[in-house]
Design a protein that fits this description.
Strand content: 25-35%
Low-confidence stretches: none
Distance between the termini: 8 Å
Oligomer: single chain
Radius of gyration: 17 Å
Number of strands: 11
Strand order of the largest sheet: 7-11-10-9-8
Helix content: 25-40%
Largest sheet: 5 strands, antiparallel
Number of helices: 7
């Protein structure tokens, strides 16, 4: 995968068109630390200096850098260091940039991968990324609802990949709803499963107003959750990883 991929999104609905932007970043901690002064707000820099562990530092920088790149594509005219991304009371990312309206943000990160999506408040979205690994897959089995057991094979023929994709769908939905991991994951049970080549499209039993778009790339599982009746050109999603 390229080290930085950014795409503008156009979401078509019967009641209008909504813009969004997405960025995926593949950077080492060393690379991000070297450029942190070019994208971190002064408050973000101060917070970063309090982080003691390399893994936490890496996650923080990955999320902020991906977010700033997505914001730059969404707004086109701003200085990255003037934007602060703070944490809400449920640790959801909050964008502070006066004069830009109600811009919302969702962030995901794992190992050396970060993903962020920026969208207007009127069109909620969420993203997630997870590394596909055996140990993680065994843990995920505990969150599979009874009604999902017969759908795993439809998501992917490989159990580990199927389980990891399922996790990202639920995690991305939890970010849309701003509940995080504090809500029982069985509430995020998926409904029908469809495939369009390499992209898996799922709906949700208890949240039928949303859909997930999920895929595998570079050893990771990725998901975007968006309103069910919104149409997004899947070619744009494929540009992220092809």
């Amino acid at each position: 995968m390229r080290s930085i991929v950014v795409e503008k999104l156009v979401l078509q609905r019967a009641d209008g068109v909504f813009p969004a932007a997405i960025a995926i970043v593949n950077q080492t901690l060393s690379e991000l630390k070297n450029i942190r002064y070019s994208f971190l707000h002064p408050n973000e820099l101060n917070f970063f200096e309090t982080l003691k562990f390399a893994r936490v530092q890496h996650s923080y920088l990955l999320g902020r850098f991906a977010a700033k790149r997505a914001l730059f594509a969404f707004l086109e005219n701003f200085v990255m260091t003037e934007v602060e991304i703070a944490a809400g009371i449920f640790q959801q990312p909050i964008v502070y940039l006066p004069g830009t309206g109600n811009i919302q943000l969702s962030i995901g990160h794992r190992e050396e991968m970060g993903i962020a999506i920026v969208y207007p408040e009127s069109h909620p979205m969420g993203v997630d990324v997870e590394l596909v690994e055996q140990e993680q897959s065994e843990t995920i089995r505990d969150i599979v609802a009874l009604g999902e057991q017969n759908k795993l094979q439809l998501i992917h023929s490989d159990p580990g990949k199927s389980l990891t994709l399922l996790w990202t769908m639920k995690e991305a939905l939890s970010k849309v709803l701003k509940t995080g991991l504090m809500t029982p994951f069985e509430l995020f049970e998926i409904d029908n499963v469809q495939r369009q080549d390499d992209i898996v499209i799922c709906h949700f039993v208890n949240f039928p107003q949303y859909q997930s778009l999920s895929w595998l790339a570079d050893g990771y599982a990725w998901s975007i959750v968006l309103p069910r009746k919104s149409e997004l050109d899947l070619k744009v999603i494929r540009h992220l990883y092809l």
